[in-house]
Prior knowledge:
Residues 332-336 have low confidence and may be disordered. This protein starts with 6 loop residues before the first helix and ends with a strand. Helix 4 (120-162) packs antiparallel against helix 5. The protein has helices at 7-13, 19-48, 68-72, 120-162, 168-207, and strands spanning 55-61, 73-83, 86-89, 95-100, 107-108, 113-117, 210-212, 217-222, 229-230, 240-241, 245-248, 253-260, 272-277, 284-297, 302-309, 321-327, 342-345, 350-352, 355-362, 365-370, 372-373, 381-386, 393-398, 408-410. It is 30% helix and 32% strand. The protein is of the alpha+beta class and 411 residues long. The chain is rod-shaped, with a radius of gyration of 50 Å. The chain has four domains: 55-67 and 339-410, conserved putative lor/sdh protein from methanococcus maripaludis s2 fold (Beta Barrel), CATH 2.40.420; 73-84 and 250-327, Beta Barrel (Elongation Factor Tu (Ef-tu), domain 3); 86-117 and 209-248, CATH 2.40.50.100; 120-206.
Amino acid sequence: MTTMADPSERISQLKIDRSAPAETSRGWLLAAIGFVLVAGIVLWWAFLRPGTAAVLVETDVARKPPSVAAASSVLDASGYVVARRQATVSSKVTGKVLEVYIEEGMRVEKDQVVATLDDTTQQALLALAVAQADSARASLAEIEAQLRNARLERNRLRDLAERDLASKSSLDTAEAVYDELAARLGTGGENVDVALSNVAVAEDSLSNMTIKAPFAGIVVSKNAQPGEMISPISAGGGFTRTGICTIIDTDSLEIEVDVNESYIQRVKAGQRVSAVLDAYPSWRIRAEVIAIVPTADRQKATVRVRIGFLERDERVLRDMGVKVSFLGADAQQDSATEIQGVMIAGEALRSDASGDFVWLVRGGSVERRSIVLGGPRDRPQILVTSGLVTGDTIVRTADGPLSGGQKIKTN
Length: 411
């Protein structure tokens, strides 16, 4: 016969043993933490370790210098072509334009007639002055005839008076008439001179009606048309011109540039310059510094420099934009010697305690490359004489720090 177990004993057997499960849970937690740590290390090593995350960069290519001027320039600046000798041709007097003989772009010579004004009044004044001069000459001739007659009468009365055949009063009267006519003769001569001066003034006024070029040059603007009024000064209103045309002397063309006063010590009189017109970017013009204007602009902190062309060409026009490169003392613009080194963007240059270097692109990563500069470092394009060859790709700018072996990507 089976004995029934005590119910209280069976209930006690259903109690949970908490010691063993606690050890098991702790083990699982440690294992999970270890797994996360290992996975993090693996991910860091694979993707986030230095030199692995790709940095966005902008690249540049080392190029052969286009010219000796580009390689040996100590300073670059920009300015404009100006004419040192130019004039707005006008008249000396106010008058109405009769004819204009020039057009824009026409070349004129010195004293060439460019326009004429209505000279009707001046012609009449000249005719009047000439008539007055003729009248003064006629009066002078009449006085001379009277003076000759008075001289004969005086001499005759002197002879008679010496023989007591004429009275003293008659002789005195003859002497007085002679002296009066002699004085009138002097006055008549002065009147003739005055009349001739009036003729000269009238002729000058008439010549002012013909406007001539003051020097040889090119007409760059035509400001008046036949029928318009012209005046050497502003006569008020907008219907009176103050000039016929503007002429520039092409032989006086030069360059004016404003150089930052921080770099003016790199410029000196007589220094060779390479100029490039904005209109002809592939044409380099030989030039040299004429003078450094001895004053600074306090507003812009610049000093004006005058540069003269060493060669003349019809393509050079007034007010053209131009870029200039001030060359070093050893530069020879027309030298045929091959230029050593390459040109790189100034932004690509890096420097530290070890010296100058660039980041050279190799595949998808970069490596440090030490270089030697051949010119100033504060220019948009700098010359590298050692460390790079033509065609090398370098980092110009980067969105993050770079190190040897750093992976990069470009746009």
